[in-house]
Amino acid sequence: MKDYLELIRANFLLLTPITFLAGVGAAYNDLGFVNVLDSAIALAGALMAHISVNVLNNYFDFLFGIDKETEKTPFSGGVTVLVEERVNPRLALSIGLLTSLFTLVIGIYFFLKYPIIIPIGLLGLLIVLLYSPVLTKIPLMSEISAGIGFGLISLGAYAVQKGEIMSGGWVSFSFCSILVGLLLFLNEFPDCEIDEKAGRRHLVVVLGPERAYKLYPVILSSSYVLLVLSYLLGLTQLGSLLPLSTIPLGAKASVLVLRSKGVKRDELIEAMKLNLVTILLSILLLGIGNTTWTLLH
Q: CB-based contacts of 251: which residues, under 8 Å, 6+ apart?
């Protein structure tokens, strides 16, 4: 069982329910209610999609020889279950495809109920299937597609409540997309050289770590600016500003990244830890803030 938990990257699956909650909170804030049954079904589909992309990514990393060369950290370097033959690679591929199929079945249920789900679901499924073999080879698409993929979880969580999307849903989608893209971006630094050899063209490879690290505080700051502007423009309520309380954590992570200059491993690892906490907490607080504001008003 431990090997399969490693294969699906179970320790990273927490990101899915937290992102989903952000969408539900935004919907509750805009609509005043939550469809509990459809939310549970949609969350199951989102988890299957996350498992699928994790397993397929691990399979293609094994296929391209990436996992044989990367140095492992808690946040990067892939897994060893396929390299060490603790899980059969063909079985891993089957698991990845079957979980995608499960996601598609749930998607069809929502397609028939709410047509607005169709583009969300199809785009999400394309990202799941094309991420490792195709999208990671296109400059900058690694971060963009991963961010959008998780943003779609938030957007889908909103859409399944009533089959419509208002301003709060788009703000939640954008916020989650930026932060998840940033999460991947920082985790790419330790594996940059190996990824480049394997043909990956993510932002750190394209710019080089010595230049790419400077973007971290800029991208993180843009997520906070998005929340403030959305509130000032009347797109969201005051509760959506609760994630601003993570600014001190984000500032500390930014300092560590800048000190690392993209190449000092110890500072990078510490920054990656703090970055993970900052991002998970920020997305969680968006859902809590919207929900609490609605309950109190």
A: none
